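Possible regression after last week's pipeline update?

I re-ran a chain I had predicted before the update to compare outputs. Posting the input and the new output here so someone can diff against the archived version. Not blocking, just want to make sure nothing changed silently.
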Amino acid sequence: MSNGSTMRQTEVPGYSYSAKWTLSCCIAHRPVCRLSAAKIHMRSFNGSNTYMSNLLKLTVVATTLMLCTSLAAGPTHDQPPQVKPCPSGVAAGSRCLSGRDNAGAYYWLAVPTDWNGTLVVHAHGGPELGDAKVERASADLTRWSIWTRAGFAYAGSGFRQGGVQVRSAAEDTERVRQIFVAEIGTPKRTVLHGQSWGASVAARAAELFTRGADGKAPFDAVLLTSGVLSGGTQSYNFRLDLRVVYQSLCANHPQPDEPAYPLWQGLPLDSTLTRAELATRIDACTGVRQKATERSALQQRNLKTLTDVIAIPESSLVGHMNWATWHFQDIVFKRTGGLNPFGNATVRYQGSPDDGALNAKVLRYQADPAARKALGEDTDPQG
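New output (post-update):
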């Protein structure tokens, strides 16, 4: 999921939650990653080798990220992957293999006939919720099949479990690289690619896995696209802002006749609310799914207040509300023991028709230090 920004006075002075980051590392030569706050705008492209080569050369210097931990060696799978027909979009004639690793993650490997010797290990965005799904790994290969059409081999894991758990996803990503080496052979170069939420997965993998069983660095470079590297403790707070501002305006998530709960929980575990039902509530309050000319004056005002205060486009409102509902539920009840990792106690919201009234009305929460620490240890780049 892409991130948004809010006009809050953040805990990190000068940090913009809307910043997109790119990362490029020459890990084989030095344990340093270089970050840039320059934005990357992904677009559709037609498979040009030149385009992909230039994309891999992105290297811009800002903050240093130290890679300081070692890789735990070990076998990567119980049974060999099976040769399968390639998913749609993969370069014609490619050899594709699929399987499920010994931790339960589904994965795909693809090697084009004109392989240039470089392997791209992909960490996908999301994250998905619920159990591991075989369809996810296949869809990722289709989505990023451009790599194969540009002459690169591909290895991607669907991750062993759904939900906001970055370290285990990083382990799954390294595991699929090992599977590729065991089944296909050692590539000349290996690029670790993280997209969106997968950028945090790739950043953690780059930190965690600096030496393989052979003593060599597993990755020659790291490429992050449309990713946010501020970690869970900073990246997700704006969605709490969205929930409290939305509730102050709309008062329908939860509804007045539903049991109240702290909004940082996302949703009670026994709730039966569906995404379609939530979208209907959001539309009733904001008209976001209607043409602008069909919205009532109140809907127009509510939608403008939300997008101005939280600084997100209309098109992302429902998606971010989903994240602030079911992903928050996953974080709180599965990752932090029911404790609150998010806070807005000192935030002042700006951009509404009456900021004073808005700030007096929004619900306020204080993050629990233990919950924040647990979330940070899993999701935050450690440096």
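Follow-up from reviewer: compared with the archived run. The longest helix spans residues 317-335. Marking as no regression found.
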